[in-house]
Amino acid sequence: MNQENMEIVDHLDELRKRIIIILGTFIGAFIISFIFVQDIYDWLTKDIDMVLAVLGPLDIILIYFSIAAVISLGLAVPVIVLQIWLFVKPGLTVEEQKASLMYIPASFILFGGGLAFGYFIVLPLVLDFLLTLGEGTFETMFTADRYFQFVLRMTVPFAVLFEMPLVVMFLTAIGVVTPQGMHKNRKYAYFGIVIVSVFVSPPDFLSDVLVIIPLIFLYEASISLARIVYKRRIKRINSE
Questions:
Q1: 163 contacts 113 by C-beta, under 8 angstroms
Q2: 3-state class (DSSP) for residue 134
């Protein structure tokens, strides 16, 4: 086996190791979350003035699995980011390693912030709006499956998309993107944001707007943060 093939095998072995750690963390967090899933369910439904219905016995376990999976994903985010960083670390300079290491705790904060924004701000506004539309016309009754699908669509996308500034800063730090390029392609980014927002939000105008506005703000914030990282990178390169 030549040197190139050995390097490929080493990289694949390292990737397998990182994936195993990520899966192990997720499974461990899932088990813990599932143990307390009833308490989590009670907390998520405490503000609903009705008992959620189920249409079959399998719905119960599927709902519990969905809740536990989301909670475990949130708990595993720092480990996922750390394993990604450890995998790409050999290809980074010392300065890039130091700069990117700070992204690990930030990723957890942003993920949690996205969940909180979706759950405490977007979800109540959209839910109240949709219930108002049917007030006096329809008898409101939620199935647990449909309700938690709605909750997930109003929270998880924000948790993922709130990582945008972090991803942009990291890609800027390693020279993959530039603030000038992001500014130049802003109209295409806005178009993509609209498409994503329509896809992840319920089919009404208010929901689309409530998703589009914070995503545009995140994109603009990402450009501003990218400028800071880009200036530091250029300064470091010039000093070398």
A1: no
A2: coil
Tally of structural domains, the chain: 1
d(C-alpha 150, C-alpha 146), whole Å:
6
Residue among 130, 132, 112 nearest 120 (CA):
112
Range of the domain at 56: 3-238
Question: In 3-state terms, what secondary structure has residue 153?
Answer: helix
pLDDT of residue 32: 95
pLDDT reported for residue 72: 93
Output the CA torsion sign for 95, 96, 97, 98: positive
Tokens of 12: 């694949």
Q: How many residues does the chain have?
A: 240
In this structure, which long-range contacts are made by residues 234-239, counting pairs with CB atoms below 8 Å and at least 24 apart in sequence? 236/95
* Tokens at 152, concatenated: 């997930």
User: Can you give the pTM of this predicted structure?
Assistant: 0.75
Query: What DSSP string runs through 162-209?
Result: TTHHHHHHHHHHTTS--HHHHHHTHHHHHHHHHHHHHHHS-SSHHHHH
Question: Strand, helix or coil at 112?
Answer: helix
- The predicted model gives 59-83 an average pLDDT of 89
Helix (H, G, I), strand (E, B) or coil at 142: coil
